[in-house]
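Researcher: I'd like a candidate sequence for this fold, 81 residues long. If you have to choose between options at a position, lean toward the conservative one.
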């Protein structure tokens, strides 16, 4: 959901995540946190840093420079953490 052009709200597994282009601060269910890198707004598309995707989903991600690809890895169901 895009409340305004430079903001994004994501509903995921009962939580609401809010991000603003150019701002490292985000909100999750009203509580503030900080990202290492800010989301980017380019040509009316809001791009989230991989760190935000990891926080939202609990998955880990890695970027392969040689393949110019991002790989997402689901959490190990056997890992209680």
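Model: Candidate sequence:
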């Amino acid at each position: 959901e895009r409340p305004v052009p430079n903001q994004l709200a994501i509903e995921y597994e009962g939580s609401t995540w809010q991000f603003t282009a150019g701002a490292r601060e985000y909100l999750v269910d009203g509580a503030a946190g900080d990202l290492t890198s800010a989301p980017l707004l380019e040509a009316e598309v809001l791009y989230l840093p991989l760190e935000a995707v990891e926080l939202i989903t609990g998955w880990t991600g890695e970027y392969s420079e040689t393949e110019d690809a991002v790989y997402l890895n689901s959490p190990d169901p056997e890992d209680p953490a």
